[in-house]
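To make this tangible, we now present a fold written out as tokens:
***
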Amino acid sequence: MGKGSRAVWQELVLSFALAIVVALSFPASAEAAKHKPPDNDGPPMRFAVVRSASPGCEPLCPEWISAEGTITRSTPAEFKKLLKKLGDKRLPVIVTSPGGHVEAAWELGRMLRARKLDIGVGLTRFVECAPGQKGCKLDPARKGIYSGALYAAGAYCASACSMMFAGGVRRHVGQWAYMGVHQVTSYVTQQKITYRETYRIVNGKKKGIKRKVVGRKTVGSYTTTKMGKAFKSKMLAYFKEMGVKQAMFDAGQSTPAADMRQLALVEMLDMNLVTSMDATDALVSIEICKRAVPAGNCTLAPGVKPQPGTYPNPVVPEDGGMWFVVVRSGEAGCEPTCPEWISAEGDIDAKALPRLEATLKALGGRKLPLVVSSRGGDVDTSMAMGKMIRKHGLDVAVGGTIFGGCRPRDEGCKVPAKSPFFSNAVSYEGLCLSDCTLLLAAGKTRLVGYGARLGWYLRAKPSTSVLASYLDEMGVRAQSFDDVAPIKVVYTDQTRLKAAGLLTRNGSVDLLIDGSVCRLIPIPANCRLASQGEFARKQ
């Protein structure tokens, strides 16, 4: 052979014993810390979308993500699948967990923060059937959404769960749920790995070609609470990223792994682990769906669609003539389905009829009760308006509208274009004098509540011959007007006027416009279901 380079090919089988850290986790108990990794510590965390089953919440109910079980390495992937399925829908997470894999918990926390999701400690009591229950089949119309209720007693978030919890935007525990921390336990498994390595020798030097594992054998395992510098840095960086103080890290690391330290509410608030002392109910209570602007996790029932809002431009003459403005109840708790009405206040002038006609036409067939307050005015206009009211089948009640902001005729009051005012109405601030009573007589339902003023000044009352044919057309006996001197109505007056045929029932304007009327079955025609956030800029 010459003096040139010479390659020698050899195959060697080499054995190495390597120590590999399998999991870093918070165990659920002392036994778990000593004997088994958290992946086997109870069932893995499962996720389910839940809709509140609380009575009275439909058609707009809160929804949430139920997250219960041990955090495993695969939990973030499962959560990611669910979030992808939800699309842009942002639901709070209600969690109960003994803990589990720490780095998986970090990943879950970062996912919560990235999606701007809230989190609370709680348990879900499923109605009808629960996820994973044998024979549980949801109606396809529910689109995989379970029905359930939140309860806090017995709910807990321990160990690694506390790190997942730190990722929420709003974070609630409350006094009945449990938050616990302790030292991180590392589970170490020792393995003997046998591999085959192929290499070649060039000019006396060994150069590897490939290496292939041909065998693995576990030769031992142990647990330790000693934390390396790199891992400690990662954990502190995570807490800082989530805006949680180092006091949480210190509380955990000062508690032996075999124990569990329950954090008090005040303590959690001080370390920024919770964002308020409110219970988890603050995230999923049905009350959050009854605000003027419902919470983002309040959704309409499947198949329920908001009714189109038809609001004419308010007609508010400057000369004191009768205005016609559409009003939506501003009563707390009525949204998203609230009663609406037409506020008709002012003198009945000659142009009141075309203003009423334009308002009813713009409503597009929607039947809203007329809440009227007027000293009267032109008798012929009043009867013409009455006939229009009866033609459209409108209810009439005497009452004053208490506007939430300015009144339509107030100086500087900005009238909302093609949208309602927000207010309430009361009987005791209403009056219906002289010709106004002809509008009342035209109502399908006719109400004058306690404290309202009603009557006809005798010197202004037209002859019976003028009123007779009109009242006969309205189905109101002419005798109703024989003794109607202006009075402040009390209960006995209501009974007398009802017996005389001018009123159809006792009661106040509330019977038509109180927020509770929209919970009746069948729902009154003047109750409208609004789309979510429809009036957010108008409140």
In short: Confidence is low (pLDDT under 50) at residues 1-40. The chain has 14 helices and 26 strands. The chain has two domains: 20-185+228-299, 323-529. The first helix runs from residue 30 to 35.
